[in-house]
């Protein structure tokens, strides 16, 4: 059974989400702020977190930054902030999705299912090992390494990189990549993909990989064979 953490200082939001999440057949643990999340993550190992951004003690963005130091567990932000800058910042820090309050709990459930489906689909890739130049991908473990060292990618970064690795040499538009990565029409623009590609490139460069994600000007991106 999938286990989801809900971190929100509004009790009515926690109660509503608990009802919907449990009705979907998932287990849920509730938190009124982020201070206990780290300890419970190590103990309970959740499959996904729903985090409010505006909270006391530690806000959702800081919480995400700390979580990403030790875990790539998918994170969905929920926030009353509707500015595009906040949405982009949340995704830049490692969030996998962003919903603006007030939101439909049913829409949140769809986005949760899409994340889990994407993870299961990638795990079910027939090839257990995918090789691209000097990088190896173990799809069963969602593990990427170069020269024995792990390249740590968030859920969305991994999804994007595996997609490119399985479709080497083929260019894709930003719109096609948005649809593939999020699985629905996301309320954003191509800059979300630009940022995602930039983050993957940076991590590949940190490991001195020869893998190249090329920009096709006026079109999109391609992973060179």
Which descriptors apply to this entry?
225 residues; 21% strand; alpha/beta; globular; 12 strands; Rossmann fold; 4-stranded antiparallel β-sheet; 2 domains
List the helices and strands and how they pair.
Blueprint: E1 3-7, H1 11-23, E2 27-31, H2 37-44, E3 48-52, H3 60-67, E4 75-79, H4 84-92, E5 97-100, H5 105-123, E6 129-132, E7 135-138, E8 143-146, E9 149-150, H6 155-165, E10 172-173, H7 174-182, H8 191-206, E11 213-216, E12 220-223
Parallel strand pairs: 1-2, 1-3, 3-4, 4-5
Antiparallel strand pairs: 6-7, 7-8, 8-9, 10-12, 11-12
Helix pairs in contact: 6-8
- Mean pLDDT comes to 87
Q: Going across the biggest sheet, name each strand in turn.
A: 2-1-3-4-5
Provide the CATH top-level class of the largest domain. Alpha Beta
User: What is the count of DSSP helices, taking H or I runs of 4+ residues?
Assistant: 8
Structural class of the secondary elements? Answer: alpha/beta
Helix content: 40-55%
- H/E topology pattern: EHEHEHEHEHEEEEHEHHEE
Distance between the termini: 39 Å
Poorly predicted runs: none
The main β sheet shows up as:
5 strands, parallel
Strand % is 15-25%
Task: Find the CATH topology of the largest domain.
Answer: Rossmann fold
CATH superfamily of the largest domain: Response regulator
Question: Rounded to an integer, what's the Rg over CA atoms?
Answer: 17 Å
CATH architecture of the largest domain: 3-Layer(aba) Sandwich
Number of domains: 2
Query: Total strand count, please?
Result: 12
């Amino acid at each position: 059974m999938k286990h989801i953490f809900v971190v929100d200082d509004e009790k009515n939001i926690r109660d509503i989400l608990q009802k919907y999440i449990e009705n979907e057949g998932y287990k849920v643990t509730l938190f009124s702020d982020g201070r206990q999340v780290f300890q419970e993550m190590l103990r309970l190992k959740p499959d996904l977190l729903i985090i409010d951004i505006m909270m006391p003690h530690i806000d959702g963005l800081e919480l995400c930054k700390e979580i990403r130091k030790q875990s790539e567990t998918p994170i969905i932000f929920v926030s009353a902030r509707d500015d595009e800058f906040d949405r982009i910042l949340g995704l830049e820090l490692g969030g996998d999705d962003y919903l603006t309050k007030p939101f439909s709990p049913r829409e949140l459930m769809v986005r949760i299912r899409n994340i889990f489906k994407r993870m299961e689909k990638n795990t079910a890739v027939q090839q257990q090992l995918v090789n691209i130049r000097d990088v190896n991908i173990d799809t069963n473990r969602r593990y990427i390494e170069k020269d024995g060292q792990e390249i740590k990618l968030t859920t969305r970064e991994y999804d994007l990189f595996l997609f490119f690795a399985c479709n080497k040499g083929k260019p894709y538009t930003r719109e096609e990549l948005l649809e593939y990565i999020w699985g629905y029409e996301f309320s954003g623009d191509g800059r979300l993909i630009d940022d995602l590609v930039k983050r993957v490139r940076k991590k590949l460069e940190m490991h001195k990989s020869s893998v190249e994600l090329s920009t096709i000007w006026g079109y999109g991106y391609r992973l060179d064979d």
